[in-house]
Amino acid sequence: MSIFEPNLLIHEKSPYLLQHAHNPVRWYPWGSEAFEKARAEDKPVFLSIGYASCHWCHVMEEESFEDHEVAELLNKHFISIKVDREERPDIDSVYMSVCQAMTGSGGWPMSVFMTPDQKPFFAATYLPKTSRYHLTGLMDLLPRISLLWKQDRERLLKIGNEITDHLNTDQRPSETVSLSEDVPAQALADLNASFDNVNGGFGTAPKFPTPAVLLFLIQQYKLCGDKDSLAMAEHTLLRMYRGGIFDHIGGGFSRYSTDDRWLVPHFEKMLYDNALLLEAYAEAYACCENPLFPEIADAVVSCVLNELSHPDGGFYCSQDADSEGEEGKYYTFTRDEVLHVLGEENGSLFCSLYDITDRGNFEGKSIPNLLKQSPFPNDHEGLKRMKRTLYLYRKKRTSLSTDKKILTSWNCLMISALTKASRIFGREKFLAAAQKAESFLDKHLRKDDGRLFLRWCDGEAAYDGQLEDYAFYSLSMLSLYRSTFLEEYLEKAVQAA
User: Fold this and answer.
1) Count of domains forming the chain
2) Structural domain span for residue 416
3) What is the pLDDT of residues 349-365, one digit of tens each?
4) Distance from the first to the final alpha carbon of the chain
5) Strand ranges across the sheet with 402-403
6) Is 176 domain-assigned?
7) Which of 87, 204, 353, 395 has the least C-beta neighbours within 10 A?
8) What is the pLDDT of residue 170?
9) Residues facing 366 on adjacent strands
10) Calpha distance 497→495 (Å, rounded)
């Protein structure tokens, strides 16, 4: 058997797994075949979990999984399994708990070493090929683990048993706890203590939008009249919009900001982030009527409909952070480039408004943003035409990879957000998009008996729905019922519940 023969991911549907199908690493998808192979050959298992639009997953693939030296070590001493964390959230959840228990943190790509009976004994996130700074490289780590497996296996098994016992204990149901007024009060106190009064958001870099927190703050205003809570939410929503985490050319939000000002994001766009942020902007507008929020909502929905929509109505998972191997290339501009596309007069105006300079603000180029603008520029028709021209230009200049999996849970979050936003902003097209997406789910991801599939991709539905699929599906059906009063939505919600 050739050490670099094609791997088994070539038969998968997941775009993330297919990205790795031609690696020299002999990858297996998650399943009994891989673990039986590990037992038969008496080898430990290397599990790598990531997702298609993850920048550091691409880095690790390029550095290590496309490297023949790393592949030779993995193929000789390990059975290697690749998992798409969006397609298998159940597996990701288990091993993320392992990673957090062993390292104190987690993230993707996730790297886990385990026994053939799935007991983990080492976990980490991104690992470079060779050791540098505080990171152990795979070329040092793989031989060390292989040697321990052969010469000191009892030590690894002991670690695996301890971690497994810890997880089993940690996941036992706890005693019922009543929710008192002290709990939200303590949460508000903690949020106040970590709130960034200047830039919005909580804590320091990296900063995540945390729309669930913003929705909690808005809820506290609605329930208790707490104006400070609403002010924190509104300020954060405005500052995120002003920053580069918001795509001022094509709409939509990136996953998180690498700095505390929301300027430089990791550029991947996720469906679930934009769904929850759309809901947050809608709920905030219902309380404070900030005139910018309808425009932001329109831009988010336009991004989803233009970039993340199946022709028949379902919503795709994400768009990549990288273009042609370079992070952010799709989203950044030089000043000369903008002047060339828009002309001297319009180009100069656009650059002055959106902080596009000769020096740049990201690796010699500029991420459009409004952080230096106060008050905000009026988004008049002329400015909208400039954005449209730049949008069409950048689509021709370079392209983004789109993960075209359609997940039941994430689609239901977007359906709920669109339906709520349609009521609050009076946008009929939002409701129409939600109903079209629901029709897609009903046709492709819902069985005749009402049970759900987890994902649809390339014409195939797969994996039984999990708890979050049923919870978010019920939520979306109730939201549609509130807007349409069509009984079929209420009946589907009851059946799913």
Assistant:
1) 3
2) 409-497
3) 999 999 999 999 999 99
4) 50
5) 269-270, 318-319, 402-403
6) no
7) 204
8) 63
9) 333
10) 5
